[in-house]
Amino acid sequence: MGKVVMYSSVSVDGFIANENDQPGPLFDWLTSGDVPLDDSGYLKVSQTSYDYTRPYWDQIGVTIAGRHVFDLTDGWDGKPPSGIDHVVVVTHRPAPEGWNPEAPFHFVDGIEAAVAKAQELAGDRVVEVAAGDVGGQVLAAGLIDEVRMDVVPVVLGTGKRYFGSTQAQHLLEDPDVVIQGNRVLHLLYRLHR
To answer: What is the DSSP letter of 48?
Structure first.
């Protein structure tokens, strides 16, 4: 089985979006350089960020996201973002009416079922869990192996927390990776077991 990794860009005060689900400047680092990060021609980062981010993105087989994110993005028009093979959507509701059943999206009820389905689909590749409420629930269930953060130098003040509404303490190891890019600090922590 591949690793289960919680991931997102985050403000220095721990938010992944404001209260209206807008990320504001949290993704500015993705256009702050001159090295193309993907084939879109839009995402360009520093060489340092590319050397850290591209190999990680290439390892991701499945992303787990909540229904709220799925709805906000209109299901990415049925195409998983960033070249990922599958998306597992944690939801108590069925797929939207008219949803293409051939799209590589899997609607699953519950955190444990979502991680099991994602690991089945990913094989030995990484299962990425979107930070926020779903990520916090997966962390609370003890199913996260690593936490990756792209820390952006902005204070949002309020909004959607990186770890969602998790109330319990979770001890992380010292960071394995600390890399400074343009307008971002890349951090990788393993969970203390």
So the answer is: H
